[in-house]
Specification:
mainly beta, about 260 residues, 7-stranded antiparallel beta sheet, 8-stranded antiparallel beta sheet, signal, 15 strands
Length: about 260
């Protein structure tokens, strides 16, 4: 083998070897989860812990593809989320569970709003407009809330806290939905439909339009922070930007022990 050929081989091998540490350190998301389709900032995953960071400007320019010509950036939405790879169906019973850690230095208050526009988890029907279902809200005035029920107080920030939701997705009277935070029941629907959330279409849940509900669409669990903006028509409301005011230091949160699937005993 000529010396030039040998030198090229050595150089190529050295370059490949230099890449190995980064390849080895790259860690996929927990089994059963994938990144959000309209991602503003990717989370990090290390040894079962998914770490999210949400900062001003973390929006996706990708068009929603539903004919409205909208995107997260146009609507003022900031996002760093993962979602369940397989989707859930009406008629099925499921458990959704995780432990949550919120940076204790985080500061964001949703004064004057019945529910915080900052979400850290949500359930919605995919490929359907305004089919958002249930949501886990965050601010530093009320802490973490499921819908309008307190889950964790702000004093719990900086500690790992457990969230679990057991549900039978149903459009009939056999539906069930029970949310526990640190094993304490905070929200419950029993012997009633769970496919369309209470107060769908009201001011507290405008992303749920009763006239557009498509119960044939599968359900996705989305985990991670998303701050909803003012929408594309923000100027009609006298606003200068579709984006809400958000701390320059952003939000840092973590989740671990993610689980979704059959209800565990």
């Amino acid at each position: 083998m000529r010396s030039g050929t040998i030198l090229r081989c050595v150089t190529a091998c050295a370059a490949l070897w230099a890449l190995l540490p980064s390849i080895a350190s790259a860690s996929p998301l927990p089994t059963g989860f994938a990144e959000a389709s309209f991602q503003g900032r990717s989370p990090e995953h290390d040894n079962g812990v998914v770490s999210f960071t949400l900062m001003n400007g973390d929006c996706s320019k990708k068009d929603y593809g539903d004919g409205r010509g909208e995107s997260d950036c146009k609507n003022g939405n900031l996002r760093s989320q993962i979602h369940t790879s397989s989707k859930q169906k009406l008629g099925g019973a499921y458990e959704y569970s995780m432990e949550i850690w919120i940076d204790p230095s985080f500061t964001y208050s949703a004064y004057g709003q019945p529910r915080s526009p900052l979400l850290i988890a949500e359930w919605q029907r995919i490929n359907a407009v305004k089919n958002h279902m249930y949501e886990l809200h965050l601010d530093t005035m009320r802490g973490v809330q499921f819908e309008d029920k307190n889950c964790f107080k702000p004093e719990a920030f900086g500690e790992w806290r457990r969230f679990t939701m057991v549900v039978k997705w149903s459009k009939g009277s056999d539906g069930l939905l029970r949310v526990t935070c640190d094993d304490q029941i905070v929200y419950e629907l029993a012997a009633q439909q769970t496919a369309i959330p209470p107060r769908c279409g009201e001011r507290v849940k405008l992303q749920c339009d009763p006239k557009r509900q498509n119960l044939r669409r599968p359900i996705s669990w989305q985990v991670g922070p998303k701050l909803g903006g003012f929408g594309t028509e923000y100027r009609k409301h006298g606003l200068d930007s579709p984006f809400r005011t958000f701390p320059g230091s952003g939000l840092r949160m973590k989740v671990r022990n993610l689980y979704y699937g059959p209800v565990r005993k």
